[in-house]
Design goal:
The strands form 2 sheets. Strands 6-7-8-3-9-10 form a 6-stranded mixed sheet, with helices on both faces. It has a 4-stranded antiparallel sheet with strand order 2-1-4-5, covered by helices on one side. It contains 7 helices and 10 strands. 34% of the residues lie in helices and 29% in strands. The protein has 229 residues and is an alpha/beta fold. Helix 3 (104-114) runs parallel beside helix 5 (146-159) and helix 5 (146-159) packs parallel to helix 6. The protein has helices at residues 48-55, 78-88, 104-114, 120-130, 146-159, 176-193, 204-209; strands spanning 6-17, 20-32, 37-41, 63-68, 71-72, 89-93, 164-168, 196-200, 212-217, 220-226. A hairpin with a 2-residue loop joins strand 4 (63-68) and strand 5 (71-72).
């Protein structure tokens, strides 16, 4: 069996709330295989977004370990974790996180330029065409619908050819039809490029499309359902 692209090993996150410690995640462990799609589901407050932040190395656990492509994140400083994220990860957020002063093309170009890509403009334009926005490259976020903004965010995430895409409620701010279109786009790119998807979602239809569903409750894994191919 190939090594997992991402592993959580007894991840625990505790914060101080008033005078007492509050455990947000309690010894969470699982592996994620490359190329698959996994939905992390659970009620509000179950620890889903905290877990995603730990998996991405954006936060440090109180205990436990995250391994990304075999690399233990605890042994890396912030600069090294950022470099690993830039090389391996793409992100899509519920609130789109586009820079308002940049056009759609410039938003997609930005991470490519930061990574030193020589063909940033051409690559960004190609990705906007792939997500159906070839005629919207010069538009600013305020000139785009919510669905179009999320398509720009997806183009930006995939343009760097990440091994793994992490999405936090990617359809949360979209109506049902637009959310379905955005979901279809993510899964199509997953199939075409072999990018592993890790989605935090309340959207039952989106979760059901994933090959695996990991259920959290009170900071613990209470279900791990795999869909047989």
């Amino acid at each position: 069996m190939p090594d997992p692209i991402l592993s959580a090993e007894a991840l625990t996150k505790t914060v101080v709330s008033g005078d007492a410690p509050l455990t947000i995640l309690d010894a969470v462990s699982f592996d994620i295989e490359a190329g698959g799609s996994i939905a992390i589901v659970g009620a509000s407050g179950s620890g889903k977004t905290t877990l995603l932040g730990l998996l991405a190395g954006l936060d440090r656990p109180t205990a436990g370990e995250v391994r990304l492509a075999g690399q233990a994140l605890s042994g890396l400083d912030e600069d090294a974790r950022a470099a690993l994220r830039q090389r391996l990860l793409g992100f899509v957020f519920q609130s789109f996180q586009l820079l308002p002063a940049l056009t759609a093309l410039e938003n997609v170009m930005l991470p490519l330029e930061l990574s030193g890509a020589a063909n940033a403009a051409a690559s960004a334009r190609e990705w906007l065409v792939r997500v159906g926005l070839g005629r919207r490259t010069t538009h600013y976020p305020k000139q785009l619908s919510g669905g179009e903004q999320q398509r720009v965010a997806i183009a930006r995430a995939f343009a760097g050819a990440p091994s793994l895409l992490m999405a936090d409620e990617p359809t949360g701010n979209l109506d049902g039809a637009t959310g379905a279109e955005v979901a279809e786009l993510m899964f199509r790119l997953n199939r075409e490029h072999g990018t592993t998807l890790v989605l935090v979602t309340h959207d039952a239809a989106l979760a059901e499309r994933c090959s695996r569903r990991l259920s959290l409750a009170d900071g613990r894994v209470v279900g791990d359902h795999r869909v047989e191919a």
